[in-house]
Design a protein that fits this description.
It is a single chain. The protein is built from twelve helices and eight strands. By secondary structure, it is α/β, with parallel strands linked by helices. The protein has two domains: 169 residues, Rossmann fold; 115 residues, Nitrogenase molybdenum iron protein domain (Rossmann fold, 3-Layer(aba) Sandwich), CATH 3.40.50. The strands form two sheets. A four-stranded parallel sheet has the order 2-1-3-4, sandwiched between helices. It is globular, with a radius of gyration of 20 Å.
Length: 297
């Protein structure tokens, strides 16, 4: 795990100095016999909730509609991290404050990126956008829950298999839906879709790099406008948690391109949660957007 000023940050966190958004979904756990699990953000929280069901009480540290990269922790969230039986983080500096607080505890902390990504692989942490790799995340979560709660191991394994089957269905839909397309280049707000692009033989061109708040240079915008003209790109993809301003500017200056949302699944809004959206439904919405933009048949 990258520490990114971890020593200073941990002392601040444990002293209750840092404050930020309110805690995510979750309640108690140990008092009612459920295993207390803390997940750093949505994809990990969904995996833990689906695999654990009524044996676990999952707290999602990142509130609905919040960009997770720069999450700051409240004192209550730090306490939840310290008290949890299992803490699930992405690792590699994806959420520095969360990772620093998790590193200061004695209990089980699982860095999912280290569990599922090949050594020396891509720096892109957005592994949950590749269904094949997200299934590995689910397996790693099931293993972590089984270690903390051996009596539930068979239940966790069975639920993980069911969830993996659902994920495999989404993978097959992507493979078929993106097999025959007029174009294979996607222009995105930031480089969050590398795992998805590699899985389905697409080329990602990000306006910004891996950090969504990185401002592109005029040179980069000009390069993307030229690329759009050269490769017949019709759509610039924006994101649900990032301002669309730069993407809309590029779309306009590149000759009146369309904009559409490609969801990073870093978090769901209150409206999406109320609608019953989840990883699979949002991935299918992304597939529809990709097929339209790429001219797939």
């Amino acid at each position: 795990m990258k520490r990114l000023g971890a020593v200073t940050l941990v002392f601040a966190l444990l002293g209750g100095v840092l404050v930020g958004c309110g805690g995510g979904e979750g309640d108690g756990g140990e008092a009612d016999g459920r295993l207390p699990v803390v997940a750093a953000f949505y994809p990990l929280a969904e995996a833990a909730s689906r695999v654990g069901e009524n044996r676990v009480a999952v707290t999602n540290l990142t509130p609905a509609g919040t960009e997770p990269h720069e999450l700051e922790l409240t004192p209550d969230q730090v306490d939840r991290i310290q008290d949890a039986a299992v803490v699930l983080v992405m690792g590699d500096g994806f959420q520095p404050a969360v990772e620093a607080a998790a590193a200061a505890r004695d209990g089980q902390t699982v860095e999912l990126l280290a569990e599922v990504a090949p050594p020396g692989g891509a720096a892109d942490p957005h592994v949950w956008l590749d269904p094949v790799v997200y299934a590995r995340v689910v397996d790693a979560v099931a293993e972590a829950l089984s270690t903390a709660d051996p009596d539930g191991a068979e239940e966790y394994a069975a639920r993980a298999r069911r969830l993996a089957d659902e994920i495999a269905t989404v993978d097959r839909e992507y493979a078929a839906g993106l097999a025959r397309c007029d174009r294979r280049t996607i222009v995105t707000a930031h480089e969050a879709f590398g795992w998805l692009a590699r899985r389905y033989d697409l080329t990602q061109e990000g306006i910004a790099g891996l950090a969504p708040d990185q401002e592109p240079t005029p040179k980069r915008l000009a390069e993307l406008a030229d690329l759009a003209d050269r490769e017949g790109v019709t759509t610039v993809f924006t994101e649900e948690l990032v301002s669309p301003r730069v993407a809309e500017t590029l779309a306009r200056e590149a000759g009146g391109l369309q904009t559409a949302v490609l969801h990073t699944l870093e978090g769901l809004s209150d409206e999406e949660l109320a609608r019953g959206d989840d990883w699979a439904s949002v991935m299918r919405s992304n597939l529809r957007a990709l097929r339209h933009a790429l001219g797939c048949s």
